[in-house]
Amino acid sequence: MAKKFGLGKGIDALLGEAKDEEISSPVSLQSVNSANFTPVFERNLPAGIEADENGQLWVKVAALKPNPHQPRTEFDQDQLQELADSIKEHGILQPVTIEDAGSGEFYIIAGERRTRAAKLAGLEKIPVQLKKYTDQKKLEVALIENIQRADLNAIEEAKAYYQLMEMSGLNQEEVAARVGKKRSTVANAVRLLKLPDDMQEAIVKGDLTAGHARALLSVSDRTNQRILFGKITGDGLSVRKAEELAGELNAGAKNKKNKEKDKKQDNRDPDFIELEQKFIDALGTKVQLKGSNDKGSITIDYFSKSDLDRLYQIIIGN
User: Fold this and answer.
1) Cα–Cα–Cα angle for 189, 305, 240, nearest 5°?
2) Is 17 a catalytic residue?
3) Residue 35 has pLDDT above 70, yes or no
């Protein structure tokens, strides 16, 4: 049974105590760039790691590489600059957790944001804790650290949950226990990955909220889902309005399906009908072909400027 880590102590439980490698006070910019890094006791340290007179470990910022399982891909530059300014004034309050990557380089397991800010602040070396983790634990540590700080966007969080399940064979309930979340939270997050890429990108950019995403996911017909997306982004629908329209679209699709059962069979050329469906699948919107294989017209529907831009990119390209 998976061990539970509450958000209040989850990262500590994963990282361990490591008392001999903690610092008791902030490290100033001046001390970092001028400290004498001469080890004062014997310890088997990888090349590139140095210890000061207090036993604190240090490594050059240039030797640090991002965690290969880091779920976070977006870093706000203004927030990084604010942290860099704070580091210049107050120093680094918490060592960065790293793992030996070999050849004098190290993976950042927890603290990539601090590392980026330290580089902006001009630090040559930063205090670190040296650990060793499995791939699964690397992801858990990075995920929990970011969730505790609310640093992941909804899609990054969803991908991290999914990756954790794929890597470790955990189910949603077990993942929820690991990261201190409710199972429904994990389930709702992972469902976002069922949305098309452009809708996921809209969530990342903040054009869609989680509530809008749930409304889109409730639409059973792919074309109707595209219509709703166009309405949300083009008309700025509230979550409540989006949910109402989703219900109407689902009801309309059901009625249409029932009516089609009673309609006479489409007497158009089967190849022509199949071609129309291929256009619908490729463009993700309503498409009507009129005429025959030899001559006719094609009508493509769009529902907002962003939807028109999307169709332009598909048809015309960059």
Assistant:
1) 45
2) no
3) no
- The C-alpha atoms of residue 267 and residue 262 are separated, in whole angstroms, by 14
**Selected residue with higher pLDDT from 148 and 282:** 282
Q: Is the pTM of this model over 0.85?
A: no
Nearest by Cα to 57 from 68, 66, 46: 46
The residue that leads in pLDDT, 39 or 217, is 217
Judge whether 182 and 176 are in contact, CB under 8 Å: yes
Q: Where are the alpha helices (DSSP H) in 16-109?
A: 29-34, 77-90
* Residue 190: pLDDT band with limits 50, 70, 90: very high
The letter for the amino acid at 47 is A
Contacts with 309 (C-beta within 8 Å, 6 or more apart), sequence order: none
**pLDDT by residue (tens digit) across 40-79?**
344 577 888 888 888 888 989 898 988 776 666 667 778 7
Catalytic residue among 99, 112, 140, 156: 112
pLDDT over threshold 70, residue 264:
no
Q: Residue 33 to residues 30, 121, 126: CA-CA distances in angstroms?
A: 5, 11, 9
Q: What does the alpha-carbon distance between residue 187 and residue 191 come to, in Å, rounded to a whole number?
A: 6
User: What is the model's pLDDT at position 255?
Assistant: 56
The alpha-carbon radius of gyration of the chain (Å, integer) is: 27
Instruction: Please name which of 115, 63, 66, 47 lies closest in space to residue 87, comparing C-alpha atoms.
Output: 115
b/e code 239-277 from CB counts within 10 Å (16+ = b): beebbebbeebbeeeeeeeeeeeeeeeeebeeebeebbe
Question: Can you give the pLDDT at residue 33?
Answer: 42
Q: Is 8 helix (H, G, I), strand (E, B) or coil?
A: coil
- How many C-beta atoms surround the C-beta of residue 151 within 10 A? 18
Q: Is 35 exposed, middle or buried (0-12, 13-18, 19+ CB in 10 A)?
A: middle
CA 83 to chain centre: 22
Question: 42, exposed or middle or buried, with CB in 10 Å at 0-12, 13-18, 19+?
Answer: exposed
